[in-house]
Amino acid sequence: xxxxxxxxFVFSATLMLLMTSCGRKSSTPKKLEIPTAVVSIDTxxxxxxxxxxxxxxxxxxLKDNKYAAVNDSLLRMGLLQPDYFSLSYDRLSPQTAIPAxxxxxxxxxxxIAQLVRQRxxxxxxxxGELTIKTELKAAADDYITALSHIAINNGNGQLTKYTIVRxxxxxxxxxxxxxxxxxxxxxxxxxxxxxxRLADRENLDKDDIAGLQAKGYFxxxxxxxxxxxxxxxxxxxxIYTPGEISQKEVRVAIDN
Length: 256
Hints:
With 256 residues, the protein is α+β, with helices and mostly antiparallel strands. It is 32% helix and 29% strand. Strands 1-2-3-4-5 form a five-stranded mixed beta sheet, with helices on one face. It has a three-stranded antiparallel beta sheet with strand order 6-7-8, with helices on one face. The N and C termini lie far apart (50 Å).
């Protein structure tokens, strides 16, 4: 009798485990099937011992020549800051655009640093640095998510870090918008869900905007869904950069 009860218990436990496993979503990240490559540049410009500029960039792009138009679009999405290329009419390629970006940034930094140095009568030391690293990940459907991790030191000793995210089609490179994914009423619909998630995080009522503002979210501004978002098959993660809706970076995930 004891053996029979034990057998029934093991069978029931195994069945429950199988049912639980079948109902659970896979946590394995979706793999990007398209091959990628990286253009890297690392340069230090010296105007003097007091004025220097270090630029380091690792820019990931789609490797095959058939993605030339997509890579051109990728360079215009604001993943590189300052956004020099958004209004360019020439066809862009990572191999030529990244060195050109670095030269332009160094040129502008040196011009500004010299002006600051003159106004402060040579008392300041301006050692600037810009680091940009991008990565490409598989997103919802056949889309790709591009993330750009940026760190800037304008020479004043304060480091600013933030992440820019863009989602685009691997077929033609067009930028995926929230309206395209969630419809014309996306602002109202997504804002409501974001407020609900933030309120739950702060142990507030689901629509307590005043309570969130008291805790430092959306202070003095209307709430809204960020254009900075990671799009997956299961969820959308909104990323608010430091100082946008809070002093720190805020990430909010909602189910699709």
